[in-house]
Each structure stands twice: as C-alpha cells, then as structure tokens.
C-alpha cells in the first residue's frame, strides 16, 4: 500500500494538481485585488457613486501590489520546494531505470560472432 502511494506521488499528477490549485487561488486574489483597487474606483469616478472623501489617490494600488507579490512568493516557494526537487527525483529515478546491467550487443556484431564461431568449427 505504501509502495502504491509512493508511485502515485512520484508520477507527479498529484503535485501538479496541488500546484495548479495554489497558483490558481493566488491568481484569483490578484484578479480580485485588481478589480477592487483599480476597476471599481474607475467605475465610481465615472459616475457610479460620488466619493466625498478627500483622497489624493482614487486607486488602491497597495492591494494590487500586495496580491502580485503574494503570487510571486507563492510561485517561487512552490517551484523551489516542490517542483525542483520532484524534477530532480524523477531524473534520478529515470537514470536508475535506464542503467542496464549489460549493454545489448548490436545485430551486426552478433552476426560476425556467429560467422567466427562457424569458421572455428570448420577448422
């Protein structure tokens, strides 16, 4: 059972799905921040509702920058903690699987060896 779980995790599908969900959630936060910080103030300034506060800026860029930085940080952490080690582990597993004990002899070399053996038997 543990072996099956290990094979499932090493396939990478579970890791790819988890990374996709986390990046999607972080990107959703960026879209939400852009909407509330940039789009909504533009609509409000165009006549949606009057803003009587004495703000110098109508845009809330801090929310957008915060969401973008969060996306970059989450992406970097996922890459360096999960993706990079998984890729390294996959290449190591492939090298172990590709390393045969004895190399296969080409067909022409086998044919020459048979001819040599037949000539030895005739002599």
Automatic annotation (TrEMBL):
Lineage top rank: taxon: Bacteria
InterPro entries (UniProt xref): MS_channel (IPR001185), MSC/AndL (IPR037673), MscL_channel (IPR036019)
Keywords: Cell membrane, Ion channel, Ion transport, Membrane, Transmembrane, Transmembrane helix, Transport
GO cellular component labels: plasma membrane
Transmembrane segments: 57-83
Record bears the keyword Hydrolase: no
Membrane topology reported for the UniProt record: Multi-pass membrane protein
Major localisation: membrane
Function summary: Channel that opens in response to stretch forces in the membrane lipid bilayer. May participate in the regulation of osmotic pressure changes within the cell.
Family note: Belongs to the MscL family.
HAMAP family per the UniProt record, alphabetical: MscL (MF_00115)
Protein name: Large-conductance mechanosensitive channel
Source organism of this protein record: Luteolibacter ambystomatis
Lineage: Bacteria, Pseudomonadati, Verrucomicrobiota, Verrucomicrobiia, Verrucomicrobiales
């Amino acid at each position: 059972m543990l072996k099956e779980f290990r094979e499932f995790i090493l396939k990478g599908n579970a890791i790819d799905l988890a990374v996709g969900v986390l990046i999607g959630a972080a990107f959703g936060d960026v879209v939400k921040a852009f909407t509330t910080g940039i789009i909504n103030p533009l609509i409000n300034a165009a006549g949606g509702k009057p803003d009587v506060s004495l703000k110098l800026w109508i845009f809330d860029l801090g929310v957008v920058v915060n969401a973008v930085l969060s996306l970059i940080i989450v992406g970097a952490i996922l890459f360096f903690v999960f993706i990079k080690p998984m890729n390294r582990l996959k290449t190591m597993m492939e090298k172990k699987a590709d390393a045969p004990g004895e190399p296969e002899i080409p067909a022409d070399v086998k044919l020459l060896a048979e001819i040599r053996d037949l000539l030895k038997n005739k002599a």
